[in-house]
Amino acid sequence: MPEEKPTGSARPSPGGLPLSAADPGTARPEGGLTPPEPGAPAPTDGGGSAPAVGGGSAPAVGPGSAPAVGQGSAPGLSAGSPSTTWRRAEQGGRADSRRYRDVFAVREFRAVFGAHLMSLLGVVVSEIALTVLVYRLTGSPMLSALTFALGFLPYLFGGTLLAGVADKYPARRVLVVCDLLCAGCAVVMVLPVTPVAALLVLRCCIAAIAPVFNGTRMATLADILGEGDLFVLGRSLLRVVSQSAVLTGFGLGGLLLAVIAPRGALAITVCTFLGSALLLRLGTKRRPARGRDSGALLRSSLSGARQILDNRRLRVLMLLFWAPPMFSVAPEALAAPYADEIGIGSAGIGLLMCALPVGTIAGELYAGSALGPATRSRIVLPLAATTLLPLTVYALTPGLGWALLALTLAGAGSAYTLGLDRWLIEEIPEELRGRAMTLLTAGLMTIQGVGMALAGVAAEFLPVSTVVAGAGAVGTLCCLLLVAETRRTRRAAGGHPGEGRTEGRDGADRHMSSR
Predict the structure, then answer these.
(1) Which PANTHER family match (predicted)?
(2) From CA 460, how far away is CA 452, in angstroms rounded?
């Protein structure tokens, strides 16, 4: 399938107290007791156990179950003390700290991860094979390029008009059906009688299905792993695999086409989609649909998008995901003309295109393996504000070595997304989770396509080095504005500087969900 949660809005606890967060990843009652990550032992204070108080026990989430949390506060702690609140947040962060190996210990995640690998293989092979096939049938470079571009354009359609599917139906059914539909499209592509126009339409169909699949899978990760650190690391692993596909997939696809014909490669794509569907069907549990809206799909999709984007906090968090990639694609899109500008060969072009993904992978893996949840939360805003700054070195028209260093540093700055993942998942009401993740995926792909197009247009009138440096400067300014807005939405609820959640919504404190 093509690639890229209990409710996260503040809500009453079983005992009637509102839940807030001293740490972006930790929901806690105001009394100061921090429920641990599902499956983890309760944090202690001075060696003692945090007692379960109140009437009921919290339902199981993810691989483990959370202990009961009720009305009381931990012994000896003042609920109103900021230092106590922050100390508890730090304790919760340490108790919640996980590693990548812990994610693979969850059986359902292993199935999702395997399906992700197969999906990526299918996507990469189909993109290359279809582009080559269209060029061989038409001899038109324009149609060949259009075939590749069609992988971006329908994301906006699928992510807005079809997003309701992600919450309207059980997640496993949605994922399997999406894979089967893509396999069906690939089967028709394999047929020798399929004309070029039909190939392009089928390419659009697969691309329109992609955001629904990806959004549903992202939402399902929270069901499988919980909202805590396991979810963050699971998302990180899927991103690392996707970035690795950028580095290796297209080269391997080219080697494959040297051995078999493009339609034969498309037949392999059919098998990968079917394999992904089988893994998801047999390797994940059936869960009920999240949404309660029984109305028309289009109305459900659009109303969900409106609820999400009307939420001031959710809106700015999504923009923090979207803004840096919009500007960081400029050096990749203009790698060939920049190589010509500084006088390096085709090998240099490949290095320029690989540097950003290499930095991204390194940053993700370091943040996921060496930093704890509290630290990942603290670096979100500083990294988001500065991740595009290295691109401004292009103003000096650097040689290959300095350009590669700048691109690698810009890629490494994307490590801010791990902490941002947790902030976002905790803000999204459960019944909107699938639609929110689908909208996030669609926006990310669409905004990158827009960024590539704008960079190309600007390079028609300005030197490539100026365009890339301008993208870094303008992008940094945009990110600084978003960081300031993020801080404002956080302060709207009177939160601590380490807090990731808020109830502030466009000037009014209200809940998106009554749950």
Answers:
(1) INTEGRAL MEMBRANE EFFLUX PROTEIN-RELATED, STAPHYLOFERRIN A TRANSPORTER
(2) 13
> Vertex 126, ends 360 and 140: CA angle to 5°?
105
pLDDT of 57 higher than 50: no
* Residues whose CB falls within 8 Å of the CB of residue 493, separated by 6 or more in sequence, listed in order: 10, 20, 499, 501, 502, 503, 504, 509
Asked if 377 and 423 touch (Cβ cutoff 8 Å), the reply is: yes
Cβ(151)–Cβ(207) below 8 Å: yes
Q: Which pLDDT does position 97 carry in this prediction?
A: 64
Closest C-alpha to 407, from 346, 344, 457, 471:
471
Give the residue from 210, 107, 108 showing the smallest Cα distance to 159. 210
**Count of Cβ atoms closer than 10 Å to residue 427 Cβ:** 26
- Note whether 269 and 126 are within 8 A (CB): yes
> Distance between the two ends of the chain, CA-based, in angstroms?
33
Q: Is 222 within 8 Å of 433 (Cβ atoms)?
A: yes
Q: What is the mean pLDDT of the chain?
A: 77
Q: What is the pLDDT of residue 1?
A: 56
DSSP of 422-468: HHHHHHS-GGGHHHHHHHHHHHHHHHHHHHHHHHHHHHTTS-HHHHH
Radius of gyration of the CA atoms of the chain, in A: 23
Are the beta carbons of 404 and 355 closer than 8 angstroms? yes
pLDDT over 90 (residue 72)? no
Q: Would you give the DSSP letter of residue 59?
A: P
Calculate mean pLDDT across residues 199-226: 90
pLDDT, tens only, 4-49? 433 333 333 333 333 333 333 333 333 333 344 444 444 443 333 3
Can you list the alpha helix ranges (DSSP code H) found in 191-257?
A: 196-225, 229-257
C-alpha to C-alpha distance for 116 and 136, rounded to whole angstroms: 30
More confident residue, 503 or 246: 246
Residue indicated by tokens 């209200």: 510
Query: Tokens 């630290």 appear where?
Result: 375
User: 413-462, pLDDT tens digit by residue?
Assistant: 999 999 999 999 989 988 889 899 999 999 998 898 889 889 988 998 99
Q: Is 26 helix (H, G, I), strand (E, B) or coil?
A: strand
Q: What are phi and psi of 61, to 5 degrees?
A: -130, 135
CA distance 205 to 114: 24
Give the tokens for residue 112. 């999702």
pTM of the model: 0.71
